[in-house]
Amino acid sequence: MKLYANPTSPFVRIVRMALIEKGLNEGVDTTFVDAWADDPAFLDANPAGRVPTLVTDDGARLTEALLILTYLDAIGTTPSVLAGGPTALSAAGLAIGVFDAAVAVIIGRKSAPDFDAGLVGRKRFRTMHEGLRRLDAAFAEHRTSFGLPAIAAITALDYLVFRFPDHDWRSLCPEVAAFRDAHQDRPSVRDTVPRG
């Protein structure tokens, strides 16, 4: 399999973490791309030019992180990343909403330097703050496993700390921060920290 990725994308990170957790990472050729550069091979794999994109061994092109995770659960062994039922998916959804809002700010700044102060920017920051608070409350019952709630929560917190270091994100989600610290040496956490 081939994974088109970016070392800073939180959507890529949840896929990379799942690959490591499921023991599938060794069978994947990860190619880091600049999603803004329109590399022909990457666009052939995904005309939308978005990461992550996974090309399976039989040539299927899978786009969108949650669809890729569904595929990985279907082909891989335990643990199931998407297990845990509605409450687990709800907690994961809060975390994904947080980093989706953060990505929207980063992209918005590319076209409008004052994006943060505008209506959409303010709404995205509100989503990040309130989302982390709610995630912290919802996360308490998912601390014993390392499925999508844990993967997405760690990804959300690390992405905000990486992209917006002038905010105290950890104080908004002490449960998530403590869980992240307790797992800092776990290969899926350690080897996928955003860098750029």
From TrEMBL:
Enumerate the UniProt keywords alphabetically: Transferase
Q: One Pfam family for this entry, by name?
A: GST_N_2
Q: Which domain of life is it from?
A: Bacteria
Q: Where is the GST N-terminal domain?
A: 1-80
> Can you provide one Gene Ontology molecular function annotated for this UniProt record?
transferase activity
Q: Which InterPro entries match?
A: Glutathione-S-Trfase_C_sf (IPR036282), Glutathione_S-Trfase_N (IPR004045), GST_Omega/HSP26 (IPR050983), Thioredoxin-like_sf (IPR036249)
**Mind naming one GO cellular-component term on file for this protein?**
cytoplasm
Per its UniProt record, what Gene3D superfamilies does this chain match?
1.20.1050.10, Glutaredoxin
Q: Which PANTHER family match?
A: GLUTATHIONE S-TRANSFERASE OMEGA, PTHR43968
Q: What is this protein called?
A: Glutathione S-transferase
- Say which species the protein is native to: Methylobacterium currus
